[in-house]
Design brief:
Elements: H1 2-10, H2 15-27, H3 31-45, H4 48-60, H5 64-77, H6 82-94, H7 98-111, H8 117-128, H9 132-145, H10 150-162, H11 166-179, H12 184-196, H13 200-213, H14 218-230, H15 234-247, H16 252-264, H17 268-275, H18 285-305, H19 311-326, H20 331-344, H21 348-358, H22 366-378, H23 382-395, H24 400-413, H25 417-430, H26 435-447, H27 451-464, H28 469-481, H29 485-496, H30 502-518
Helix pairs in contact: 1-2, 2-3, 3-4, 4-5, 5-6, 6-7, 6-8, 7-8, 8-9, 9-10, 10-11, 10-12, 11-12, 12-13, 13-14, 14-15, 15-16, 16-17, 17-18, 18-19, 18-20, 19-20, 20-21, 21-22, 22-23, 23-24, 24-25, 24-26, 25-26, 26-27, 26-28, 27-28, 28-29, 29-30
């Protein structure tokens, strides 16, 4: 600024130098001196740009009257001076003279009928007056005149969103972006509204474009990574989160996302590496620890059935026992994972013992009791199983699942069929549309030889619980009984998609092989 003053003193008649000096004064907040320089300069040449700067200085000095007079003068010189018209209208609005403000902007709109900017500012003034309907009319008129005006698209779209007219907002943004795909403000609105409507597939291309335009927007990158994950675009998701991790290497959330994605891809060892970096102080530590335990269990089970030694089994048991010891409040949670490993490797006795140890813990829920009862059943400890479920019923006599458990267990054992039916009927009275209970009823009818009734109940059950392995297996048995081997096989193949344990997979595969054998007629030709 000192340099500009020195030069201005040397060339007091040089308009270019004087204007640069005035601007330098504005930049350092010296509006009074800038006013003096600009007034002299404007009176000398009546230059339009100098007048606009001077009017802005008047406004900054709260000299609204002088600012308005100068804007009027500039408009008289050039009626198409867009900025002068807008600032004059705003000056009237600041002075609470809304009638003159609208008159001024309307007059400018008539002088320049192709410009939508004046209608846009009338819309803004209407918003300030809380006249939303009037504002919408102005914004719509602005958009009709000048469809590429970002301000009017954003303002009109915001009104649509505020009124929850999301389809109109999306259509408006979509049309605008088809002509101007790199308009960042509208892209941002589009991404937000599509997220609000949970239109995750549709939002991806817009989020990608916005991320390219705003590479430093880390929140947007996180959203994009989540979108890729939900869309099963795992390599893209990993790439995004790795970029984020480079920017924030200690972020527990990013480490968790990367661990979860690799887990989803069944890349357990890579997943464990990321989860293992999450510190114990993180709110995600507990869940990541449980996930690591589950993955180590899966690796150990694969190793067990492939007869590949006991490397992962030792690693898993060492890890899970350490967690059970370290986290007393999570003793039940980790014990379930441990029991799951034993169950998955057909070591039902060890699984049962693992759960028995923690059954007196406060966090041992009703669901945990069902699991333990199921393990008792597999070990043929029927009295213990029955007593456990009766204990639930004693506290919760309207617990339909407990009554159903008792009834179905008796069906599987093959004794006391009518008593089993009574228990299932009790469960049905409590919860008549429950898929699991209707499965039990269907299995009862099958055991009684009433195949058509069985099929009807099992079809109903599958409609309620379409991914339940037992229901699918029961339907396969029923259709095999009806000699519809093709249909029976389709149910077994569907069940295969949901198996957790190798033993279940082996059992289903054996059933499929038996079906293939049974369907071959004496001629040797497959029907």
């Amino acid at each position: 600024m000192i340099l500009f003053k020195y030069v201005a003193d040397l060339a007091p008649e040089d308009a270019f130098v004087q204007k640069k000096y005035a601007i330098s004064l504005i930049r350092v907040g010296n509006l009074e001196e800038s006013q003096v320089v600009l007034e002299k300069l404007y009176q000398t040449g009546k230059e339009e740009k100098v007048g606009m700067i001077l009017a802005g200085v008047y406004t900054g000095l709260d000299k609204e009257g002088k600012a308005r007079d100068l804007y009027k003068e500039l408009l008289a010189m050039n009626p198409e001076n867009e900025d002068a018209c807008i600032f004059l209208g705003k000056a009237f609005a600041v002075s609470k003279d809304m009638t003159k403000a609208f008159q001024q902007l309307n007059q400018c709109a008539k002088n320049n009928p192709k410009s939508g900017i004046y209608d846009y500012y009338m819309g803004k003034m209407s918003i300030d007056q809380a006249k939303i309907d009037q504002a919408a009319v102005h914004f719509k008129k602005s958009h009709d005149k000048q469809p590429d005006l970002t301000q009017s698209v954003a303002a009109l779209g915001f009104i649509y969103e505020d009124r929850e007219q999301f389809e109109l907002a999306i259509k408006l943004y979509q049309k605008h972006l088809s002509h101007d795909p790199t308009d960042a403000p509208i892209l941002s609105r589009m991404v937000q509204v599509l997220f609000a409507k949970e239109m995750y597939q549709e939002v991806i291309p817009y989020a990608e474009k916005l991320s390219d335009l705003e590479p430093e927007n880390l929140n947007l990158k996180v959203k994009l990574g989540v979108l890729y994950t939900d869309a099963k675009k795992f390599p893209e998701a990993i790439s995004v989160f790795k970029d984020l991790l480079a920017a924030a290497p200690q972020s527990d959330k990013i480490l968790y996302y990367l661990g979860a994605i690799h887990q989803e891809m069944k890349e357990f060892q890579e997943s464990i590496e990321y989860f293992n970096q999450i510190p114990s102080s993180s709110g995600l530590y507990t869940d990541s620890s449980v996930q690591m335990a589950n993955m180590l269990s899966s690796l150990a089970q694969v190793e067990f059935y492939n007869h590949e030694g006991d490397k992962f089994q030792k690693k898993f048991l060492g890890y899970i026992n350490k967690k059970i010891e370290e986290h007393k409040d999570l003793k039940v949670e980790f014990s379930i994972v441990k029991a799951g490993f034993y169950e998955g490797t057909s070591q039902y006795n060890h699984a049962m013992e693992t759960m028995v140890v923690v059954q007196d813990e406060k966090s041992f829920s009703t669901q945990h009791k069902y699991y333990l009862a199921n393990l008792f059943e597999k070990e043929r400890k029927y009295e213990e199983s029955t007593n456990l479920i009766l204990g639930i019923i004693e506290k919760e006599p309207k617990n339909a699942h407990a009554w159903n458990f008792l009834g179905y267990s008796m069906l599987v054992r093959g004794n006391e069929m009518e008593r089993a039916f009574e228990y299932i009927q009790t469960a049905l009275k409590i919860s008549p549309d429950d898929g699991y209970i209707r499965d039990s009823l269907g299995w009862y009818y099958f055991k009684k030889g009433e195949i058509k009734k069985a099929q009807a109940e099992l079809d109903f059950a599958l409609a309620k619980v379409p991914d339940d392995i037992e229901i699918l297996k029961h339907l396969a048995v029923v259709h095999a009984e009806l000699k519809d081997f093709k249909k029976a096989k389709s149910y077994l193949e569907a069940a295969l998609k949901h198996v957790r344990f190798t033993t279940d997979r082996q059992e289903i595969m054996a059933s499929i092989e038996k079906l293939d054998t049974d369907r071959i007629p004496a001629s040797g030709k497959v029907d």
